[in-house]
From TrEMBL:
The lineage of its organism: Eukaryota, Sar, Stramenopiles, Ochrophyta, Bacillariophyta. Belongs to the FBPase class 1 family. PROSITE patterns: FBPASE. This is fructose-bisphosphatase. Residues 286-416 form the Fructose-1-6-bisphosphatase class 1 C-terminal domain. It comes from Nitzschia inconspicua.
Amino acid sequence: MKLSVSALLIVGFTGVATAFQAPHHVPAGVVASGFVKTKTTTKSTSLHVATGTPSKLKVPVLDEVCETTGVTLKRYMNEVAILNPEMTELVTLFGAIDTACKAIANLVKRSQLPSSETLGYQGEVNVQGEDQKKLDVITNDLLKRALRFTGRIGVLASEEEDVPVDLVNTEKEAVYTETDKYVCVFDPLDGSSNVDAGIPTGTIIGIYEHDENCSIDEECVGADCSAAELKCLTNTLQPGTNLVAAAYCLYSSSTFLVLTLGAGTYGFTLDENLGEFVLSHPDMKIPETSSIISFNEANTHMWDEPLQEVVGKWKTGKGKSGKSFSSRYIGSMVGDVHRTLLYGGVFGYPGDTKNPNGKLRLLYEGAPMSFIMEQAGGASTTGTQRVMEITPEFVHQRVPIIMGSKNDIEEVIEAYKAAGK
């Protein structure tokens, strides 16, 4: 990111750049903020929970990558908070996510060492009937603690927790308790079964607004107390259209953190020399048409007929684009979606005769990743319904998911409509 020659760097005794003299020729619509000139724009976000109307979010337009140390995640979130004071508390929340993802990345890297205590299975089965690896439990506890001690979370739900966890009405006080503004849902280590083979894994996070009027009287007892607690915990059961933010961390050749606040999708890469996530993929846009499919094609014979038909045409070059599609499938949702965002394509885990609702969870996998995909210009569907519009009926609800390049997803939707589904 290039600066005017007239910009004056002032360095304090700590050696940290603290200010720039703004050039006199800053054009209209550009804010001289922090280290660089930053344009701003206003974008419509998802529905606001309280009013049911689209909110307006001002975002810094960072459309190129800085050539020196870069724009860090902290800097980006601070810029957003300056432009949108009502979102200031998200800075603290993403600070915790930043640290947690770095810690999980280190755990994953060290997991195969003989001295590591993360190898093997915990000896327990989670609510989905899946064997829990030690790494699943460790990363879940790590992320849960990181979020809890921000003091900004009222309730959280995780793939590894049987039920949502109330972080407000508990005897254990958080470090800061000024607010319980948000609900957080997450999959602490998506694709953990692949760790032993060195295949990319990731963390998926969704953030909703919490009903601040939801509190439990400390003196309540019995059924009344249980009903009040249940009402508070159901704050997690919100459709994706209510998401305030979503993010994923990918642990692979590099550690990536990709996020959306409802106004575009931004990708950061961990610079291990600095210990900071640095903006590497500003305002990500997925190609509208692609030639890559990412499915577990061993299940093709069990899919719905419309999907079989569309994928069959793509393979033979008889689809709308006229391109012959190639297949790329990792088997780790975060890895497959990240590649799809960068290169275009269609990722899916559809329903089939064995698993009619697919295998991916709506609340902490489907909705957050769909939010990120849509904000990058893509689309996400079950085949018959937009994933973002589905209201979960229970925390661990599964849902068929097909997401990716907009034109290709439209082709899938049209096939289901033509079949009367």
